[in-house]
Write a structure and sequence with these properties.
This is DUF262 domain-containing protein. Residues 13-272 form the GmrSD restriction endonucleases N-terminal domain. Pfam families: GmrSD_N. By secondary structure, the protein is of the alpha+beta class. The chain has three domains: 3-185, no CATH class; 265-453, no CATH class; 462-600, no CATH class. 43% of the residues lie in helices and 10% in strands. It has 26 helices and 16 strands. The strands form four sheets. Strands 1-12-3-7-2-4-6 form a seven-stranded mixed beta sheet. Strands 5, 8, 9, 10 and 11 form a five-stranded mixed beta sheet that branches. Strand 13 (380-381) and strand 14 (384-385) form a beta hairpin.
């Protein structure tokens, strides 16, 4: 490794280096992800002289690297969702030599925000706004309580110092609290300079505390003295300085120092190459797409950069697996040349997800969307890609039903759980081979995955488990989507109880004479497996749900405005809807729902995977 350890510097010097852009961040770094609690714990560790590990810098002196690769400034004012990305710093031309942070971005950004910035996160019990507002996401600065340390009963983090990110309103409220004295940590940077450590207490700390009438507090004297020394005198920023100008060598160093020698997520590497070879700002283009998918009223799904980049590789027909050869500059140029079409396809695909009745919660495996996007990108209709018209409800009804069926099946079977690259590669090949069929090749896909650990077939035990899924479970929407694919065309569809939920409280049930002397039947009525499961759930359009509200099922269907018949619920005219016959209603509906599920999916005669998958994948960047 070409480099060595440099003399340690103070936190104040590190802050100055960030301000004057002597320290920058390379494009290969991820976004800042630390929470306020992590930042507070870091400052507590520093105050207690705990080691915070060595940083690694890359001494960038090559003009070629300055011209070819992108670098970014540190975050000052972090705002959840609305300001999570770093600003681009042009380093071309006569830009000075600088150091790029290879290892330690999260710690250094945390220190910088704690001293010079703000951290905004959403207030509890408030809906996410479409634009950044201080009401929903108030900026918070880091404060240290100089009156006392952390109380033992509240000390879950084992901290000694009480650091908190507080809003202006919170600080204003604390002014009336005589038991606390909150010091804005960043103000330590503007305190007077002294010639020696011995002068800190007498020349700086005591005059400040006396001005605020806290000079008699022993803890305040010690804490503020320690903070001043930590930030301005203590050389705690230890770093290794990498001097090589070989980008491949530095990239290898980055991978090893950030992942213990194991490969990083492919998106992090691809992003670094994409940014270097993309005309314009790749990070902004990708982040703008992520923001649109998240905030548009027609989509509102959360995806990250890795998902976007994986989808790009899929759509251009490249290998989606993690191999360095898949991330070369030529691939990136192909992606950029098709970026307008790729972007439009991704947006249209997520609009289709909404048309299928899915939301961010029920679409539990975002990787399942990628094959759908690939099919819509490659298939054509009237000499245009299918994604252009797939959401037109006057066209492609059969296509949407087949796509919806496949999607709900893979969501319920957990096909994209764990490592999904193998499934994506296989789907890419199957779709390509069957494009001439003119419709999504569901049968061929089922056949190709049969008798593998990604088998799409359902067995009897699995189907019975689906009928017992409870309201509120993210899988409910997929089960009802398989049962009633004809309803998926309506965006304004709600999932609701047929016999109203409010009727099954102990208070309400105690009012019925037929239950008062029958504890066994009462227990069955109370059991959520009956009243809160798929057997008692249905998809209702907006007007139907509005007309129903908490009416009994019998009263609602007997009315003139329901627009719902027995047959819509898969029942016969003779099936009773009276509340006292609720258990018979559940038994009957389970029977017909099972029949419909068997007819709408491929049923295996052999026992395959009989448990309902609970978690399909854990996705970062949401």
């Amino acid at each position: 490794m070409a480099g060595g350890f440099e003399k340690a510097i103070t936190i104040r010097q590190a802050v100055r280096n960030i301000d004057d852009r002597t320290f920058l961040l390379p494009a290969i770094q991820r976004n800042f992800v630390w929470t306020t609690q992590q930042i507070c714990t870091l400052f507590d560790s520093l105050m207690r002289e705990y080691p915070i590990n060595t940083f690694m810098m890359w001494d960038v002196t090559s003009q070629e690297i300055k011209n070819k690769y992108r670098f970014y400034s540190f975050l000052t004012d972090y705002c959840q969702r609305f300001k999570e990305s770093n600003d681009y710093v042009p380093t071309q031309g006569d830009f000075k030599h600088f150091k790029a942070v290879i290892d330690g971005q999260q710690r250094l950004t945390s220190i910088y925000i704690g001293l010079k910035g703000t951290y905004a996160y959403k207030q509890p019990r408030i809906w996410w706004p479409n634009t950044r507002t201080d009401e929903a996401l108030p900026p918070r600065r880091l404060y240290l309580n100089l009156s006392k340390g952390v109380d033992g009963e509240e000390n879950e983090s084992m901290s000694q110092y009480d650091f908190r990110f507080l809003t202006e309103k919170q600080i204003a409220a604390y002014q009336f609290d005589t038991n606390s004295f909150w010091f804005e940590v960043g103000k330590v940077l503007s305190m007077p300079d002294v010639r020696s450590d011995d002068e800190i207490l007498m020349e700086v700390v005591l005059p400040y505390l006396a001005e605020h009438k806290w000079a008699d507090n022993k803890f305040a004297r010690k804490a503020l003295t320690r903070l001043y020394y930590l930030v301005r005198r203590d050389e705690v920023i230890h770093y290794y300085n990498e001097e090589s100008q070989d980008i491949d060598h530095v990239l290898d160093v980055f991978i090893r120092t950030n992942s213990g020698g194991t490969p990083l997520e492919f998106g992090s590497l691809l992003m670094s190459i994409a940014i270097a070879n993309w005309e314009g700002d790749a990070r902004k283009d990708i982040d703008d797409l992520i923001t649109e998918i998240r905030q548009s009223s027609e989509t509102q799904f959360s995806v990250g950069r890795d998902w976007i980049l994986k989808t790009c590789l899929m759509l251009i027909g490249a290998d989606v697996r993690f191999k360095v050869k898949n991330f070369n500059a030529d691939q990136v140029r192909v992606i950029q040349s098709q970026w307008p079409q790729i972007r439009a396809c991704i947006v249209a695909t997520f609009k289709l997800m909404r048309l299928f009745g899915l939301n961010d919660q029920s679409l539990r495996a975002k990787n399942a969307v990628i094959p759908v996007a690939y099919y819509l990108y490659e298939q054509s209709y009237q000499d245009k890609p299918l994604y252009v018209s797939i959401t037109n409800i006057d066209l492609h009804r059969e296509e949407r039903i087949v796509l919806s069926k496949w999607l709900h099946m893979v969501l319920l079977r957990g096909i994209f759980g764990g490592q999904a690259d193998g499934v994506l590669a296989k789907m890419q090949r199957l779709i390509t081979e069957n494009l001439s069929r003119g419709i999504f090749p569901l049968e061929e896909i089922i056949e190709a995955f049969t008798a593998t650990n990604k088998d799409l077939r359902f067995d009897e035990a699995f189907l019975r488990g689906l009928i017992d899924i409870q309201y509120g479970d993210a899988r409910c929407r997929s089960v009802l989507g398989l049962l009633f694919p004809e309803i998926n065309e309506n965006l304004k569809v709600d999932m609701d109880h047929l016999h109203p939920k409010s009727a099954f409280t102990k208070t309400e049930l105690s009012k019925h004479k037929f239950l008062q002397d029958d504890s066994s039947k009462l227990s069955e009525f109370l059991n959520p497996i009956n009243w809160n499961s798929i057997a008692n759930l249905h998809l209702l359009n907006e007007s139907q749900n509005r007309s129903k509200q908490d009416k009994s099922l019998f009263a609602w269907l007997s009315g003139t405005n329901s627009g719902v018949k027995h047959s819509d619920l898969l029942l016969e005219e003779g099936d009773s809807l009276q509340f006292e016959d609720f258990l018979a209603f559940c038994e009957r509906r389970r029977e017909v729902l099972m029949q419909r599920l068997r007819s709408n999916v491929v049923v295996s005669q052999n026992a395959l995977i009989t448990e309902v998958v609970l978690d399909e994948e854990v996705e970062a960047d949401q």
